[in-house]
Amino acid sequence: MNNLPKFSYKYPTLESGTLIKRYKRFLADIELKSGEIITAHCANTGPMKGVCTSGSPVMVSHSNNPKRKLAYTWELIQVTDNEPTWVGINTALPNRIIKLALAEYLFPELGDYREIKPEVVYGKDKKSRVDFKLITQSQNIYLEVKNTTWANQRIALFPDTVTERGQKHLRELIEVVKKGERAVCLFFINRGDCYQFSPGDIADPDYGQLLREAVKKGVEILPCRFEVTPQEIRYLGMAEFIN
Questions:
Q1: Residue-wise over 58-84: b if at least 16 C-beta within 10 A, else e?
Q2: How buried is 21 (Cβ within 10 angstroms: 0-12 exposed, 13-18 middle, 19+ buried)?
Q3: H or E, element range at 148
Q4: What is the DSSP string of 87-147?
Q5: Model's pTM, two decimal places?
Q6: Of these four, 55, 82, 87, 217, which has the most CB atoms within 10 Å of its CB?
């Protein structure tokens, strides 16, 4: 752990509160520490299994942009699955953080690359976009990022619901390998209390089967652990992949 390169993403100043309820996928009513009740934007379209319990401590960011319909964004929630642990809620952040990490060559598993291209069109129908394409002198790397917040004790799980889109991405990554390039699926474990990673078979058994098939065919898995606090998101290294 001590040999890991230091990398963290700093949050702006966050305000604390308590989750009242999450509804209509994109909305969350929150009581701030001051007693004010606000409606915050929830940048997470999934079911958020285990990470949207009413009454839980939360943290929100505030924007002064007058064009925004909602000034607040729900950023964190504290869960007690293992011990009190902050979990990242804002699904817009992982890709931003990984882009910063790639620029610092944080992951030696990826080797050397000379250029980072985000949101590159690929796939048989050219209708999909891979999160990042890393340009190298030999094999280019197609890198897909998946945010992971669901956990069973110390095991992070993905997905937490049926994801046909995720299944499609795996099939496309398999095709990338067949063409002689590298394909990597990076799971951004958005909580620091998990030391292992496994497919969320209970939520989507087809995805779990496909992920295992993808690994056998050469798709690489990077389950990256991140510690989340109200001040920062800090890289902790790789979780153990339980196939």
A1: bbbbeeeeeeeeebbbbbbbbbebeee
A2: exposed
A3: strand 141-148
A4: EE--TTHHHHHHHHHHHTT--GGG---SEEEEEEEESTTS-EEEEEEEE-SSS-EEEEEEE
A5: 0.95
A6: 87
Q: Are 145 and 98 in contact (CB under 8 A)?
A: yes
Tens digits of residue pLDDT in 34-90: 999 999 999 998 999 999 999 999 999 999 999 999 999 999 999 998 799 999 999
For every residue of 179-192, which 3-state class applies, written as one string? CCCEEEEEEEECEC
For residues 149 and 126, give the distance between their C-alpha atoms in angstroms, rounded to a whole number.
30
Token digits of residue 241 = 């992949």
Bond before 66 cis per omega within 30 degrees: no
DSSP conformational letter for 153: T
What does each C-alpha distance from 11 to 60, 73, 164, 222, 233 come to in angstroms?
10, 12, 32, 24, 8
Give the model confidence (pLDDT) of 169-213 as tens digits. 999 999 999 999 999 999 999 999 999 999 999 999 999 999 999
Q: What angle do CA 55, 43, 99 make, to 5 degrees?
A: 125
